[in-house]
UniProtKB/TrEMBL annotation:
Record protein name field: Protein disulfide-isomerase
Gene3D superfamilies: Glutaredoxin
Example of a GO biological process term: response to endoplasmic reticulum stress
Superkingdom, natural source: Eukaryota
């Protein structure tokens, strides 16, 4: 009957709402009127300042909601719609969306600079809950604290020590990145040949190996800067585990990464089987300016295939090198269990025999139009011609701004086509590596940029590229 149909339909709507609702309800909605009152109720809170029309905000929303559910009862996640609460957003200096800020008992504790995946937010905010540094009283407290998936930094100081106050300041500043604890029981350091006041850095037990010490002692003059430097130089060790969360810190140096089926949650022994072989080789090339790491291939599969040109998982580890300048090298030989193939790859790298990998579309067979189509392989020949000026447009096929600019750019190229000393070109920056020296910024899915290369007769590279920032009209 019509009544029965109505009741069933109403039940369906109610059921659908109940399924979709919990994750959203775990994110607290705050406004101008109630922010101060509600925020002070939470010791630690992560607040997302957003605008409903913002594409990046919409992309973040599902991960933010998942993180809120996982952190329920530990850390509160909240959101503020800045289009409806402009006074509140102006008060906290919000100028872009989404902006994430950490609050402690209602006070702004600073920006959230961590990963924006659900798991990344959970990991960072768990570190933000509780004290900046955990007080340890006994050996059993110490053992329990350092027996953790991540590294641990433990300070041993006399109760009235000035070093302790400096250590606690550092812990407050760095707690988002590292785990801190402290104790006034100086005897806790005896097992590690540490006497007197010091800081002990415990590398994760899962990464324990015979090639390096698991505990590093810092007993120099302690300041926030010196402690930060000590942690930076020692926490990762010889061959750290590269993750999506720490890759920005590790990739500030020239870095070799070996990818394989690494899983330190379910298969520590199997993960260390290949890592130990990498460590053996890494120890032979230590001090030559190249850092090493291992990673779970599944976490970087798209990057491995798109950025390094490697095919599907062969069942064995694969190795790549990415320099801090963006040069890329791929190990083509099959990875051997004795590590010899990796050694040969490194010997070729250090001797300069390796050909770097350049992601490039095929060079067009014909290129008759006024706008020359450039790919990575033809860039030097067309754009870096020392006898010509070149205007090059870097674009993405999915970018709407780029499509809007296309007819204007084509008209410009037609008007300049009679000048033999000028080249107007374009390159798909999503499918071709952008050469060094061309500072293409922004998301390739939405931004277009142009760079002007003036003719410099004394330079074989076509001169220094300059960003074209004038009007986008002909």
């Amino acid at each position: 009957s019509a009544m029965a149909l109505f009741l069933h339909f109403g039940f369906f709507l109610l059921l659908s709402f109940d399924i979709a609702g919990p994750a959203r309800r775990d994110v607290l909605e705050l406004a101008d009127a109630d922010f101060d009152y509600l925020a002070t109720e939470h010791e630690t809170m992560l607040v997302k300042f957003y605008a409903p029309w913002c594409g990046h905000c919409k992309k973040l929303a599902p991960d933010f909601e998942k993180a809120a559910t996982k952190l329920k009862g530990t850390v509160q996640l909240a959101k503020v719609d800045c289009t409806a609460n402009s006074e509140l957003c102006a008060r906290f200096g919000v100028t872009g969306y989404p902006s994430l800020k950490i609050f402690r008992s209602g006070r702004d504790a600073g920006p959230y600079d961590g990963p924006r995946s659900a798991e990344g937010i959970v990991q960072v905010m768990k570190k933000q809950s509780g004290p900046d540094s955990v007080l340890l009283r006994s050996n059993s407290d110490l053992e329990q604290f350092v027996n953790h998936y991540e590294a641990s930094i433990v300070g041993l100081f006399s109760p009235d020590s000035s070093r302790l106050s400096e250590f606690l300041k550092a812990a407050s500043l760095l707690r988002e990145q590292f785990r801190f604890a402290h104790s006034s029981n100086l005897s806790l350091g005896q097992e590690y040949n540490a006497t007197g006041e010091c800081v002990l850095l415990f590398r994760p037990p899962r990464l324990s190996n015979k090639f390096e010490e698991s505990v590093v002692v810092f007993s120099d003059y302690l300041t926030i800067t010196s402690l930060r430097r000590f942690i930076r130089d020692n926490i990762f060790g010889l061959v750290p585990h590269l993750t999506v969360e720490n890759m920005e810190r590790l990739r500030v140096k020239d870095l070799l990464t070996v990818y394989y089926d690494l899983d330190y949650v379910h298969n520590v022994r199997g993960s260390n089987y290949w890592r130990n072989r990498v460590m053996l080789v890494a120890s032979k090339f230590r001090g030559r300016g190249l850092s090493f790491s291992v990673a779970n291939r599944k976490d970087f599969e798209a990057e491995i295939q798109e950025e390094f040109g490697l095919g599907p998982d062969p069942g064995l580890p694969v190795a790549t090198i990415r320099t801090r300048l963006g040069l890329k090298y791929t190990m083509r030989e099959e990875f051997t269990r004795d590590g010899r193939s990796l050694e040969r790859f490194l010997e070729d790298y250090f001797s300069g025999r390796l050909k770097r990998f350049i992601k490039s579309e095929p060079v067009p067979e014909k290129n008759p139009g006024p706008v020359k189509v450039v790919v990575a392989e033809s860039f030097a020949e067309i754009v870096d011609d020392p006898n010509k000026d070149a205007l090059i447009l870097f674009y993405s096929p999915l970018c709407q701004h780029c499509k809007k600019l296309e007819p204007v750019y084509a008209q410009l190229a037609s008007e300049l086509s009679s000048d033999p000393d000028v080249v107007v070109a374009k390159m798909n920056a999503a499918d071709n590596d952008v050469p060094l020296g061309y500072d293409v910024q922004g998301s390739l899915s939405r931004d277009s940029q142009t760079s002007l290369t003036p003719d410099t007769s004394s330079s074989s590279s076509g001169g220094t590229p300059r960003c074209f920032q004038a009007s986008r009209e002909t």
